[in-house]
Fold each of these.
Amino acid sequence: MKNKIIFNGQSIVLTWMISYIVILLLPVVIGLLVYVESNKTLKDEIQQANDSLLKQVREVMDNQFKAMEQLNFEITWNVNMQELLYSNKYEAFPKEYRYDISQIARNLSMYKTSYPLIDSFYVYLYKDQSVILPTTVRPSAFAYQTLHMSDEFSFASWQEIMTRPNFKGFIPMTRIGDDNMLRKTVAYISTYPMEHNQPLATNVIMVDQSRILGAIQNMEIFNKGHVFILNNENQILASNSAHALPSDFPYDKLINTPNFYFSGSDHEKYEVFNIQSPISKLKYVSIMPSTIYWQKAAHIRNLTYMSMVISLLGGGILTFFFLRRNYNPVRRLVHAFSKKMTLASGQRYNEFHFIQEAVDSTLLEMADFKSKMEQQRHMVRSHFLEKLLKGKLDRHMPIAEALTTFDMKLDRKDFAVMLFVVDQSAPFFERITHTSDEDKWKLLHFIIMNVVEELTSKRHRGYATEIDDSIACLVNLTSEEDANGKEELLRIAKDTQLFLSTTYNIHLTISISSIHEKISNVPQAFLEALDSMAYKLVMGGHEILAYDDLQANRACEPVSGYYYPPQIEQQFLYAVKSGELEEAKSILAEIMNKNFEIRGISVSLTKCLMLGLVTTMMKSISETGDIQESFFIRNPKLVDRLLNSITVPEMNLYLNEMLEQICTYTAAKRQAAISQTRQKALQELVEEISVYIENNYSDANLNVTMIGNHFDRKATYLSKLFKDYVGEGLLDRINKVRIDKSKQLLKRQEQSVGDAANGVGFNDINAFIRVFKKVEGITPGKYKELIEK
């Protein structure tokens, strides 16, 4: 019979052999396609990889160069620098020139702290041939000796760069480091606009090439090539190679061609990749030997041929081995069934079809008998479980005999009861149409019971039954050294909730009893599960209520009270009143943690704690401003929602939301109070300045600088504050007061114009006449004549 089956034209042996051959040829064909496509796409992949790495280098270096440009911008537009270069005050006060230069040097030291990645920077002044460094000023010759002196970079070359008109860009330079070693550096040169056809100053900001080489090192490791950073004049700013670009390198192609082949004078072909920075306008160039492409292509070709040979040889051997091995069990099955089913002589057939027909016939007979028995057995078993849980079993009937009858095994020593109550089933019922509500509930309970028993039976034994409107499951726990019974019950409960909610939209509350060691204690476990389920009214739906945890909380309640001491309340009140949201949230989290995670309090004390926290928030608002303006009055539903919360996480969520709104309100109030305080201080300062002018108007030395020194403020800043608040400049106020006082003196007949001028602090009578006419519209002499008439 074996020979007939193997060589039968309809036998599965022929089908399997064809399938194995097709599967064997599939990787061979795929290997050929991969080889053809890999040669075609290898170049594109390497180009994309190099382009990606170049972009990464560009991004890193652009950030560095942008920092150099940012530092240049801040130095250029520094108020002291602008005043030094473009102000005319040094014609009147030449001695202040050196002071202002030293002040700028001190300012540069602050920039050095703000830009730690900048190695060195200075400002070259053309006017007096000096260099401003952070904290010091040096003559140009001495600055060159300490900063750049080398054989490759002469003093004349440095002077030419410093006096280059209207230049802004990056150039390669050398500098002397703190260790007196000569270093290659990238310098950003920016000259100030010329005035009277003469240069004013030049900013020099330098970053050593050693910082840049780290960013381009990955390119060298990846493609074994060289990476160059070029400026607009194609000068090499930085490179990972000690060699320069070939003399015949086509720089003109870098403008419009992102990648191209280049054959150097050494007859070596290179692949050139380049991108230009849109920010710094620098060019990033990568040069890789072309031979790398063909080395990788040859490697792929060899791997392809080797894989094809191995696939054909190994696949042929495995095909014969598995074909023979897989057919043996099929042959034995056919032989076994053929004893009960007579085959016609010489009949050609497929083994699987023959087995299927034989199995179908047997299963139909068994299913018909089993379904009749199962219907009766299920109802009786449910009734038995209900009596077992309620402790109402017939004492004359041994439990062991009943368990055997219902194919139940309760031979482990640990027992527990889980109770399941449906919280939400509307979405499940909506999916079932043309069915009565009673049938829908039966189907729902049937699904829950099957899911619970299957999840429990993975490690333990569980049997579920309907009791009133809930479902109870008796769990017989397997005793394992590394297993914790309570944790196993919690795991089963969580898995049940998750599966039913995600698959059927059925949401449950589950209660779990403690673990008992005898089957006679099962009724006690059932009562514990019922007692735990009562907490559903307090904890809300979708919870897992463990009897042991609830009893532990009950035991702790008389001792713990609740945690909300006066000092913590004061800290919380101050944080909320100050608008410090993060600090307030931290204190609230500490209160919630110590009450619920560490201590555990009762439901009634939880409500008291919630009211205490809300009262503290209301106190913070009443101390900050009018509580009638707060959102408590405008949004009363926020408090109602908090009072109606039924779980601790829900209460915590509402408290944090309310805390955010209160802190926003108190922070705004606090900011307004600070603004009013500043305005009042400014008003007092203006009044003091006005009194000082009234008391010293006759002093000829009275000016903006004198007032600034008296009030220990910078004169320009004090004048700006005064003008912003009063609407007139400080000098205009001095002149106005002096003119008003001079008018009082001119009303006296014995007072001349000169006497009046001297009396109000004018040493020059012409200046007095000019200011008087500007303020009053007429000269002081004309004013005196009008008074006398």
Note: Confidence is low (pLDDT under 50) at residues 1-5.
Amino acid sequence: MFKPSIVAAAIALSIGLSGCNNDNGSGSSTSKDDLQPTLAVLKYVDPLIGTDGLGNVNPSPVTPEGMIQPSPDNWNPNNWGGKGSPSDYHHYLNQLSGFSTTHISGAGKGDLNDFAFLPYTDFHSTAVTMDKQTEVSKVGYYAVDLIETKVKAELTATDRVAFHRYSFPEGKDRKVKIDLQHELLEQYGNHSRSIYYKKVADNAIAGARTSNEWGQWQTVYFYAEFSEPFSGHMAYVDEKPTTATEVGLADYQGYGDKRDRVRDVVTHLNFGEGEQPITVKIAISGTGIDGAMANLHADTNGYDFDDVVADNQQQWANVLNKFTIKGGTQADKTMFYTSLYRTYVAPFVYQDVDGKYRGMDGKVHQADADFTNYSVYSMWDTFRAAHPLKTIIDKDRAIEYAHDLMNKFKTGGVLPKWELHSDYTGEMVGYPAVSVIADVMVKYPDAFTQQDFELALKAADVSANFDLTITQDWVPYKDAWNGDKRFTVMTRHGEYAEQHGYVPADAKKQPQDGGVAQDKYDELVNESVSYGLENAYYDWCIAQIAKLAGNEAQYDRYMARSQAYKPYFDLDKAEYGKYGATGFMRPKNHDGSWVNNYPSCAINGQGDPISPLPDGCNINDATSFDIFWPYRAEHRGQDFTEGNTWQWSWFAPHDIAGLKQTMGGEASFLQNLDALFTANDKADTSQGDMTGYIGQFIMGNEPDHHVPYLYNWTAEPWKTQEYVDQAMKEFFHPTKEGLIGNEDVGQMSAWYIMGALGFYQVNPGEPIYTIGRPLFDEVKFDIDGGQFTITAENNSPDNLYVESVTINGKPLNTHLTFAHDEIRAGGELHFVMTNKKPTMK
């Protein structure tokens, strides 16, 4: 029999106490949560939302911004032609490969997932079936019964220590397998480069894993202690048993280290029969095993699992109670608070209790008392809403992010795009860190010194311009930790934009092939339209930093580069009338010619593909890029990133007036918006990141998250309210499939939060917001020692239009905007809602 779980009863009690409310699903009910204990808010968080479908999230009982994320990983028998292998967690899968220790929330990659622990009995140490009827996922707590072994597994965590509690059936030896390789091979090719393992004591083990996928030489160290000593110990190296208690390289140096190394270690521990559960505490570190040991020994919880759950939940209650809500349905509140929860999963603290952390140079540094090193910045996604949201609701943390990113420049020589455990992944487009830094600095300039502004400008300038000498120590793999990252971290797109006024699509081609490539480093000067458009915006952000720094020359330089989006737009009302548009952004060669011709024999006069193709029309996968068709989507490596021109034609958030002019004027801008939202949503997109269609607007991916709000710059702003309302209702649900696209480390959730609050920042770096459609009757959130209030009079699901709106008693500015500094303690954003389309502008 299992020992009864105290925490299960505690959780049931807390949920029972908080369950009294009068939500009736009408959208206008008033909650009585303010009469409940502070933990009452936790009932509105469901970590299983988005664990099926495309969300890619996991049910880890992580703390707010916690460094460690224990969570179940599945075994998928259908991968690798039926051979099976570990995979990220998906709720619909019921086989478990183990509970691994590190995770990324909602990205499209299978990196991390280090050190999988699996309790078992007898000899059943392979994948085991999860009893889904017993699975519990709450804030701070995860539990599931394992069918074949009759083991109950429970997880919780502190900031740096994961707690596992395993309850075993009577009369069985209590065993634990630790898989230090645990590669998610079936999806992404994550490989273990080197593994180290050591038995430290009769109740303690330690180790390290260096792996590659996004992170090329990403190393995590761990130290674990068990509540009882183990009597049996057996290690397997490359599937061969060994009696050794220490294997592998403790000081593996990464690329260039030619010593023999171990890449597969599995350890089995036997604790014998016993009535008590086995509790294991696992700490990690980026600096070394000593750092992991220090992190674990700094924890004062002993083995009191239930106390850890209670403390974890209280930490989350402190975060979530920043907001109080009236109105809305149970589903609305669940989506809101779960979304808020997800925005606090990362970036997370990534340094040891003594302040030591691994910098972007692979070296261990000591943090000053007022500095915190953070990790997992998915900035191509999160600069759009997740980081702007933090500047509103967590100013101090947003300021810390800016200082942390500048420090990453100091230790690594260049700003990261997508940082992972102090590793340059080089993932995604451009140099989005400048947006995050600029947005914080323009909103809170008094929080930074002149030296900070100058350092930020230097970091931005270096990161926006390819220079071999800056990273000369990286190449060829001179830095054993990071290797050659110039290909993806510092591409030459900016240099070409400055020279040509845009990034030529043939920049990656050699001159003899008609291109302008200079050397091998031009091989990745691709996705020219996406890079060109986004870099123009990033350059505008750099100009804002230059203004703060008082550097007029750099301001002028980057403002000029910020116009590099314009040459891509092909204004041809007659040609593109078949799509209802005046033109599209298109790839362009260095000589000014368009890369692909107007629709050929493969497309009819209505803009639809002809099937079957007429005789003599030789179009196939290899030649399809020789024609222009706005519905054709590209993933990576061609001219667009994860989308097609329908989505990318709108990326000039820093210069909406200029984009209007480029498109042919006010009327053309509105015409093109209408064409986007009414375009054929069934046309060939052939790209997995494109989900959540309203016409060809894509809610499930980031490039046009701002686009519904652009109607506020037209004569028909009520369409913003319609499409934001539609997106929130159709694409966000409190279900396992409730996220329409990858969560992407908080971005998808942050978009929902901003939509529910009723305002959005179209242009991070410019401290203004424009309105949408508020979801709740009243929202209050903490700010500067007080509260800011959002009220919606006459609010209901049918009254989705804004009849009037004021900020602190004053009408909004042009385009229904208001300034960031108007969100202040005691302030109020007040909406009057109606079911009629208003004429207000």
Note: The CA atoms of residues 170 and 274 lie 7 Å apart.
